[in-house]
Fold this sequence. Notes:
Blueprint: E1 4-8, E2 20-25, H1 30-37, H2 40-43, E3 47-49, E4 56-58, E5 62-67, E6 74-79, E7 83-89, H3 94-103, E8 128-129, E9 132-133, E10 138-145, E11 151-155, E12 176-186, H4 196-202, H5 210-224, E13 232-236, E14 242-244, H6 245-254, E15 261-262, E16 267-269, H7 272-278, E17 285-286, E18 289-291, E19 298-301, H8 307-325, E20 334-336
Parallel strand pairs: 2-5, 3-5, 4-20
Antiparallel strand pairs: 1-2, 6-7, 7-12, 8-9, 10-11, 10-12, 13-19, 14-16, 15-16, 17-18, 18-19
Bound molecules: uridine-diphosphate-2(N-acetylglucosaminyl) butyric acid.
Amino acid sequence: MTVHTDYSLKELNTFGFDVRAKFFAAPETVEALEKLLSDNRYAHLPQLVLGGGSNILFCSDFNGLVIQPRITGIEKIEETAETVHLRVGAGVVWDDFVAYAVQHHWGGVENLSFIPGHVGASPVQNIGAYGMEVKHTIRQVECILKATGERKVFSAEECAFSYRDSIFKQAWRDRLIVTHVIFRLAKHPVLRTYYGYVEEELRKYPDVTLQTLRKAIIAIRRKKLPDPQILGNAGSFFKNPVVPKKLADELALKDPKMVIYPIDVNYVKLPAARLIEQAGWKGKCIGAVGVHDRQSLVIVHYGGGTGRDALALSTMIRQSVYEKFGIQLETEVNIVQ
Length: 337
Ligand code: EPU
């Protein structure tokens, strides 16, 4: 396997920032990855694992080894009357996997259609959209520990999934590389169509099936979210904040458009997009970066800018949301300083 030096990451991050890695390698098998990890030439260097580059903000060049696992393959490992269990390589493009599942009439990931990135990143941030989170279909996550090269399998429980979070972002952060994810899909799925505008979009189709649901989700995402091929971005830049119900009720009284997502008796989740919009940022442009004009949770890069520009903008947004609402926004995107 080739280890490239002074390698451009411009095409490997969906913001399209022009940064370079001192070393870059894209192992295609677990064995190649193991060999790379045991190579003394790179062992002492900082290492960064890159998936599809769709949830990362590079603020400078990376002075170490960037590893992009390109382990592919979708393998059926178990089947029952109700379920199919698939072992999927970390380097499989997420939406190719969703397309494959839908094509075979297996349910569980259809609402996650068209999310950019690779399968290996899906458990890390527990990707979610339109009333579905990937944690509900993940059975196991296979990894390699960076320090020892040892293989380790995490059960879904051990992954400690929560909203855009898992053990891979907490206790195990930066300590392992996901090589495969095992999914449990349903042969007779119950479709989740209750998310407001999903239902509305589905009315355009003659029937409601896995296929039409996937089409509807793709249509919605195309309408609302900028295509990174055309306009650099990394999806939602911030997480939706969890706040005390009392505070949300006060805000909703002042803003009838404020939607509230229930969590428990005391807490709710608020749409950060609405807070950012209310703070006056929607469609605003600061030099080479800006806030998307259709979805204010997305920071966009018009070209020729740097990750630092995007970071500076995100700091300004956080400050003004805090000043206006007393709410601290947390970033969803991984920031590499
Ligand atoms: N809204 C605004 N202004 C905007 C956009 C939205 O006020 O510019 C309001 C909408 O009116 C709506 C609410 O905010 O009431 C929620 O908007 P939306 O349904 O678009 O979803 P979101 O909460 O902003 C989350 C995920 C998205 C995911 C959508 C759909 C997070 C951080 N983001 O966004 O995920 O696609 O729900 O389920 O949870 C991503 O993570 O990169 C991502 C795109």
